[in-house]
Specification:
By secondary structure, the chain is mostly helical. The protein contains five helices and no strands. The longest helix has 27 residues, at about 150-175.
Length: about 180
């Protein structure tokens, strides 16, 4: 006999359905469709500086999202101050963090719909920061600069981060309630 209360499994299922609707809305708002990631992430390669493994790796998806938000703020502030070169280290840390997200998604045992939304957000971040990185590495006297500024990508970045925040919150709630993701 059903007593009208929702079990923790049903609450978890409802949360997962809400994620799909929320993330679909975020991507539609910026002109993207929530299709699976079509291509693999390529690591950033530049001849003017070395890439080493001296960066820290977040242990949870929540830590990764928090670090991403902090780095994005640093990039936004550098661009707002007119010092694109100052944004370079943070942009490259974001590149490493985008690579780390794949493992964090797997470790969080995301449901298929959450995984698809998280992957799409990851792809969106990669595309945005690839454009920002291209702009940073333009010669200062370039008359027709390639790439984009942070402001030009800000809406897309914010939407992708929002998706990751929602997914991260659901994972955190599931863990705190003892529900297996």
């Amino acid at each position: 006999m059903h007593d009208g209360s929702l079990s923790s499994v049903n609450v978890s299922a409802v949360r997962r359905i809400l994620i799909v609707f929320l993330t679909s809305g975020c991507f539609l708002a910026v002109g993207c469709t929530p299709e699976p990631v079509a291509r693999q992430m390529a690591p950033a390669v530049h001849e003017d500086h070395a890439h080493d493994s001296d960066h820290k790796h977040p242990e949870t998806l929540a830590e990764g999202v928090t670090e991403l938000e902090s780095l994005c703020k640093a990039v936004q502030e550098a661009f707002a101050a007119g010092d694109q070169k100052k944004a370079d280290p943070s942009v490259h840390e974001i590149g490493h963090l985008i690579e780390d997200l794949e493992g964090l998604f797997t470790a969080a045992k995301l449901a298929p719909a959450e995984m698809a939304s998280a992957q799409k957000a990851r792809e969106e971040l990669f595309e945005c920061f690839d454009q920002i990185d291209t702009r940073i590495h333009q010669p200062e006297d370039e008359k027709d600069p390639k790439g984009e500024t942070y402001d030009a990508m800000a809406e897309r970045i914010a939407a992708a981060i929002k998706v990751l925040q929602v997914v991260s919150q659901v994972v955190s709630q599931d863990v705190s309630q003892g529900v297996s993701p």
